[in-house]
Every structure is written in structure tokens, then in C-alpha cells.
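In the current project phase, we have settled on a layout for protein records. One protein thus recorded is set out beneath this paragraph:
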Amino acid sequence: MADLDNIKETKKFSPDNPQNAQGFHVKGCSNYGWGMKTRLSNIFNPKSGRTLMLAFDHGYFLGPTSGLERIDLTIPPLAPYIDVFMGTRGALTACIEPGLLNGKAVALRCSSGSSILNDDLSHELVSVDINEAARLNASCMAVQVFIGSDGQKQSIENISKLIDTGNAAGIPTMGVVAVGKTMERTTKYFQLATRMIAEFGAQIVKCYYCDDFETVTAGCPVPIVIAGGKKLPEKDALDMCYNSLQRGAAGIDMGRNIFQSEAPVAMVRAVRSIVHDGITSDQAYEMYQDIRK
């Protein structure tokens, strides 16, 4: 075991020397089999190497939050512009017609167990098994991971279970770095949490953008997708998207900053152009303003 007293401060991330993709467009995943790579290619565009996910799984612990009072009305108009639907099995099967997918991927929320009525949200369990994920044609399984919380051990057991069963079935696992009211949101914390999740064996990691984000992405050997987080002014949200991609993120998983926008379709189109067309956040904001007129 490592000697905790002699661990030195990490500095040698070399963000200007990217990890070798070894012939496959998804970072760190060249050694997986055909089925796993097929699903990863559904998530990450082979041309851009990036993804735009639309997260609408908030109701599993928040209930009918603003903008998601009616999933059946909010999400379908956004479908043409995204790569991945990220939701719970209940929301997907009840509100998303299969024809809307049209080749798009599904990131299936597979953990649950807490709600806003609890002071500690970290005690979750695996609520969807591998057979259900396969029946729903999930391209990946998403699970919350609470590093440094009271429920850390349980969430590590949860993600380990999904990774084991997912590897056997050729379905990737996305570990979602959780941040609670009392949990850190520092660069050092995200360096730790993303690296741990990758070393558990997750094929994708989702976390928040932070200062020195290039050290977080460089230190994580699999792709990082950033979480949109709380609602920001549209220009700020577009800046966050652009900056995170410039600093090594492989995609955006945005919810509230799209469906709570004053013009959700204009916003999702602007974000998509940053992700796949490489435009700047200034150009994307001009695009947003033009479309919403």
C-alpha cells in the first residue's frame, strides 16, 4: 500500500502531450471488444470524437423540477440536435418514443435511492440490472459515485458491480462524480474522483468543470464529459462548454442550461455547434441570439 506520508504534490500532467488513442477515437478504450466499441461509437461521434448528451434524469431525486414538469413536451423538440439521451428507464419508456432515437444513444441512469428529503444523498443502490439495460438498448449505464462522502463504500460497490456486468455484456459504464452540499468542488477533488472512477474500470467519467481543468482531463485515462450543473446565463454556459472542450473534455452532458433556457432549441443548437463544429462561444452566442429571434 502507498505510504500516505510521502505522497508528493502532483504536477506532471503534461496536458500538451495527449494520450495516444491507439487507433480508436475514444480515449483509453482501444483494447475493448467490438460490442463495447460499437456502443462507444454511438456515444462519441467518430469524426469529432465528441458527444453532446442531454441530461433529464433529475426527477429521480428532485421530482418535477423546473423545465421538466412535462418531459414529453420538453425533450422531444431537442432530440434532433443531441447525440445521447440521458434519463431514467421510467422517463425514457414513458415519454420518449423509440422513433425519436433514430440512431441516437441512451445513457441509462442505473442508480437511485435518495431524494431531496434526505440530508445525505450519498446512499444509493443499483436500481437497474444488466438485463434491463440490454432490453432498453442502452449504450452506457450511468451511476453516481460519492467520493469522500458517508456513502462512498456503497457507491464504489455500485459502480464496480455495473462495470463487471457491463464488461461481460459489452455495455460501457459512465461514473458520475457526485458533489453534495458539504462535498468539495476543487481541482484536487476532481483530479482524485475522476482518476479513481477510471481506475475502477469505467469507460466514461462525468464531472464538473473547474480551475486548471486540463490537469483533470490529462490525469484521467478515459474520456471526461462535463456536467452542465446549475442554470447559468446563456453566454456563461456557452463559455463553460467551449473552455472545457479546449481543456480536454470529450463532450458535454447538459440539462438545465438547455431545457431551462429562454430558447431551448436555440441553446441546444448553439452547444452542438461548439461540440461538433468547433465554433467559439462568442460565435455560438451570436448563433443562439439569431435563432431565438
Observations:
- Strands lie at 51-55, 84-87, 105-109, 111-112, 125-126, 140-145, 173-177, 204-207, 224-227, 251-254.
- The CA atoms of residues 63 and 69 lie 9 Å apart.
- The radius of gyration is 18 Å.
